[in-house]
Structures are given as structure tokens and as C-alpha cells.
Amino acid sequence: MLSNNGDSVLTTQEACHYLRISRPTYLKYLYIGRIKGTKAGKGWKVLKSELDRFLKGESGHPQMA
Fold it and tell me: Is residue 65 part of a domain?
């Protein structure tokens, strides 16, 4: 599925496969905010660009000075 800006929207299963992590680890990262996603029904949806940001090690939160 594509979002309005042409970015792919991934399901939990697709995101876990892409990141090569377990489902519980992925869900933990969503709950603590390391990965930004949207709850959709029983599952989560996340943009592929968000997963790429996560893989690069970029913080999802602004840095405090």
C-alpha cells in the first residue's frame, strides 16, 4: 500500500521481516516510541521511510540541548 506521498505502508509482519526483528521487539519499539506507527484495527501500520530512519539510528525525538 502507498501513502499520499508515495511511501510504502507496511503491516506488522512486513515491518518485522524488513527490520529482521521479532514481533515482540517490534511492538516494544512502537510502544516506547522508537518507531512511529499508527494503530489500525488490531494491527499497526508504519511507513517504510520511518523504518529506514530507525535503521539509520536517527532519533524519533528532537535532541535536547
Answer: no
pLDDT in tens, 10-48: 999 999 999 999 999 999 999 999 999 999 999 999 999
- What's the domain count of the chain? 1
Separation between Cα atoms, residue 32 and residue 7, nearest integer Å: 23
Query: How many other CB atoms sit within 10 Å of the CB of residue 65?
Result: 3
Number of H helices, E strands in the chain: 3, 3
- pTM (2 d.p.): 0.78
Range of the domain at 32: 9-56
In a domain, 41, yes or no: yes
Reading the block at residue 12, the C-alpha cell is 506488522
Crossing angle of helices 12-19 and 23-32, in 10° steps, is 100
